[in-house]
Amino acid sequence: MPKACACHILVKTAAEAEKLKQLLAKGASFHELAKKHSLCPSGKKGGDLGEFKPGQMVRAFDEVVFKKSVLEVHGPIKTQFGYHLIKTLYRS
After folding, report:
1. Would you say 35 and 44 are in contact if contact means Cβ atoms under 8 Å apart?
2. 3-state secondary structure of 54
3. Backbone phi, then psi, for 36, in 5-degree steps?
4. Residue closest to 14 by CA, chosen among 76, 72, 60
């Protein structure tokens, strides 16, 4: 069974996610932006979700983590929780 480790930033709007993505593109720290802006409890840990298997997260999230490139910021990805910026740290 594959596993992955990812971090994310959860916000209410696509516009807010895009604004944060632009800051990340300019070199802002994912960890610091997650601490400051993420609505998820993981924000306190810089958005770190730890290691998980397929099916433990919502489908849209899994699609990014298990299929898209590693160490790139993807999003905004819409789920029932809001809009995510997702960075997969590793996948095995």
Report:
1. yes
2. coil
3. -85, -35
4. 76
Give Cα separations from 22 to 29, 33, 42 (angstroms): 12, 12, 21
For residue 90, give the nearest of 60, 59, 49 by alpha carbon. 49
pLDDT in tens, the chain (92 residues): 899 999 999 999 999 999 999 999 999 999 999 999 999 999 999 999 999 999 999 999 999 999 999 999 999 999 999 999 999 999 99
Angle CA(10)–CA(13)–CA(52) in degrees, nearest 5? 25
This model's pTM is above 0.85: yes
